[in-house]
Design brief:
The complex is a heterodimer of chains A (about 400) and B (about 280). With about 400 residues, chain A is of the alpha/beta class. Chain A is about 45% helix and about 20% strand. Chain A is globular. Chain B has a single domain (about 1-275), classed as Orthogonal Bundle (ABC transporter involved in vitamin B12 uptake, BtuC). Chain B has helices at about 1-30, 40-55, 60-80, 90-110, 140-160, 165-175, 175-180, 185-210, 215-230, 235-255, 260-275, and strands at about 130, 135-140. Chain B is globular.
Chain lengths: ~400, ~280
Amino acid sequence: MTDRRQFIQQAGLLAAAAATGSLMPSIARAQTAKLRVGMMLPYTGTYASLGTAITQGFNLAVEENGGMLGGRAIDFFTVDDESEPSKATDNANKLVQRDKVDLLVGTVHSGVVMAMVKVARDNGTLLIIPNAGANAATGGQCAPNIFRTSFSNWQPAHPMGKVMYERGHRKAVTLTWKYGAGEESIESFKEGFTKLGGSIVKEMYLPFPNVEFQPFITEIASLKPDAVFVFFAGGGAVKFTKDYAAAGLKDKIPLYGSGFLTDGTLEAQGASAQGLLTTLHYGDGIENAKNKLFRYNYGKKYGVQADVYAVQGYDAALLLHGGLNAVKGSFGDRKALYSAMEKVKIDSPRGPWTMSKAHNPIQDIYLRRVEGNANQVIGVAWKALEDPARGCKMSAA
Amino acid sequence: MEWLIQILNSVQYGLLLFLVASGLTLIFGIMGVINLAHGSFYMIGAYLAFTLSSLTGSLWLALPLGIVLAAALGLLLEWALISRLYRRDHLYQVLLTFGLILIFEELRSVLVGDDVHSVAIPAVLGASLPLTETLSYPVYRLFISAVCLALAGLMYVTIQKTRFGMMIRAAASNPEMATSLGLDIRWIHALVFAAGVALAAFAGMIAAPVSSVFPGMGNQVLIVCFVIVVIGGIGSLKGALIASLLIGFADTFGKVLVPEFASIAVYLLMAVVLLFRPRGLFGRA
């Protein structure tokens, strides 16, 4: 008995020694310590599935680079931000000050991201935004250390004005929730639509996240516009398309939206969404080798189909990887790192894109039509669309 | 014509709200328990409708099954948790039922996931009635209204005209006296709580085909239900019915007429009612 225990102890010591022995040279070889990446994303609540997809996309890119980004191994520090703006500043500060992360990655909710932007501006920490579209993050609040790999709210909605005008619609009604993303999307659509000569008959709003649409549908039916443009997402999007179709309006007054109206919700929407046209920076059936490979690997690793959020998370890792590679993995010279990140050409599943001066993607916006359970890309609504970055005055790093 | 349809919208929305709020006002009024988890029971109902109708292939089978499951859940919760708090301060009830909200949300996330789901409208009721040349009204929405009215009538008769209803009223107005007259008050509380849970779950089930099924759906309903209970007077079913209809009108016409203030129309109504009737429309002193 004693012999056996001694043997186990000795074997354990030996193994430990072997392990440290074999580890020593590799520590010596690496130029720098592990990269400390703070992931601040929603893992519970309404946006939990988005946070998960972004994380998985990010991890896939890390794995494809041999578990490293820019030649450095990674320590992840993860915080569930719960899409709760009131906790956002504390959460971001915890990562920056307690965990001493090199950079923050996050998040989905625009209210939360604006708190992260504030923390990033105050501390000079690098922030990569993999979803939230608040225009200000790369507009009035832009900064050398803040990058976005998703979209600004202005981007997906703007091309729809052109699409609808070209399809012969002149008078439109808009409807959305009265909150940041909704209002910015409607504003952007309106700009695109009225510039060409279209007019907005009525702009309608309801409080977020209210889903009692019936009064508005009744009003739309009596206003009889040429078309309707809406911004909704998630449960609200499902309920709206179903109510709209049930009221018999779908075939009489065409419905359009930015792509979030039909993304990730098609199964629940069923027949009510069939044939709807939407605009977004990603879609199903994008014919490029990168997208095929990405979707295959993602499906194999996680057992689910990749979506736009997974792509944005994947691109966040690619951006960091590309930038760090150019400066040999060092955070020492911030200016050099940020200028390298500005110049990275991202070979994304959505198609290649580049960074704007305000650090938001210059990207193609696709026109998609709902066919079955897919948002089939039927064309490019706007080639290489750049956010106007209103109010952005980039100071030197 | 448009105004008539908006009135229809108001009534229809109000009746659905009544169905959810009635369970809350029962539990509040008869047992004196503040049940923050009421919205969760509504959500559980909707998810039961989704799960059971995909399993059985029919909403008609899912409804009775779901009601039985929800009532059983109500009995279990009353026995295991709620019954321990009758003699405690309201704050304990608030804490416990708030905890239940978090637990049910997490369980929902683990068991069904965070995606949005939908429940098909049964084929029999799938038609739409044309109201104007552009607008039709789904028959299923009218069906919901009819069911809500029928349930309101059933509850009224049960509570006002039957022996069991008398026992419930006795237990609510003077529990000690009711006990000394030989009523088993524990059993009455358990049944009322189970009925309240079943009502909320039934509302969730029957609303699922038009509201769709999504995370956090219960929280939206919970707040408006409390507003209804407060406006109607705590414990009054008649008050809850009238308050629900008032809310239906305030919400619908608020959105149409003063969209800028739509989000506060409902609360404005509550403030005005409380100003003149601090105990709600039908609250007892």
